[in-house]
């Protein structure tokens, strides 16, 4: 596909900038930052795809299409990965539906009547632990191609299945903020897998093609919610490796690298995770 659809560009252009979540006290911290102290050593490179190779959803790139749904895509993607990791990669883990909280979580979006105008990923994590999220097989994400479809919270799974959505729900045990220290984020990823974060979205990120991203030009047009799966370094410096939801035609086959260690665009101060 093209780097991102014209519908998505229009949608992002009208999306109102919302606050980041680093100061939100409603979500507990996983641990105090002192737990990852200066004596802890970490590998210079880490990739969750290599650490848990049978959990092939870790590197899966989704396409939000004409809906600004990264606030549901990134959390449910991390939940899927962590569920696979928790199973010790020995069982087939259900892929969690990003569409379910998009249409059924009434307080996840900025506008209940227009959930495709963005929302708060923390609320999606809360929805998972309190209500449960259905499987992708039950409620697949249609917004890659379906731009004019009716966004309705259905009580039954997609056409062709007679299952009730309520029978497909799986709850998480807890969700939490991860402290913004580099070592805290690394410790979290090494022990439990990918994490979700939020970055400020500038025009130059929309046209990113590769390399270690650092904002240089363009207007602030909103926020993007993404998944971090690893870290490394090259001649440009230290970076995080992330998975975006603009499809595989964007960035590095749908992935990106962003400068690490400077909380660039909030990448380190907005990390959220949870346990299945």
What does this structure look like?
- The protein has 276 residues and is of the alpha+beta class.
- The protein has seven helices and eight strands.
- It has helices at 6-14, 48-51, 70-86, 99-104, 121-130, 182-192, 203-206; strands at residues 46-47, 174-177, 195-202, 212-213, 220-234, 237-243, 255-259, 272-275.
- Strands 1, 3, 4, 5, 6 and 7 form a six-stranded mixed β-sheet that branches. A two-stranded antiparallel ribbon has the order 2-8.
- β5 (220-234) and β6 form a beta hairpin.
- The protein is globular and about 55 Å long.
- The relative contact order is 0.21.
- Mean pLDDT is 87; it is low at 1-25.
List the keywords.
276 residues; alpha+beta; 7 helices; 22% helix; six-stranded mixed sheet; disordered N terminus; two-stranded antiparallel ribbon
Write the layout of secondary structure elements.
Layout: H1 6-14, E1 46-47, H2 48-51, H3 70-86, H4 99-104, H5 121-130, E2 174-177, H6 182-192, E3 195-202, H7 203-206, E4 212-213, E5 220-234, E6 237-243, E7 255-259, E8 272-275
Parallel strand pairs: 4-7
Antiparallel strand pairs: 1-5, 2-8, 3-5, 5-6, 6-7
Mean pLDDT: 87
Number of helices: 7
Question: Based on DSSP secondary structure assignment, what is the total number of beta strands?
Answer: 8
- Binned, the helix content reads 10-25%
User: Proportion of β residues?
Assistant: 15-25%
- Uncertain runs: 1-25
What is the overall shape? Answer: globular
Label the structural class: alpha+beta
Output the radius of gyration. Answer: 18 Å
The termini sit apart by 33 Å
**Order of helical and strand elements:** HEHHHHEHEHEEEEE
**In this structure, how is the largest beta sheet organized?**
6 strands, mixed
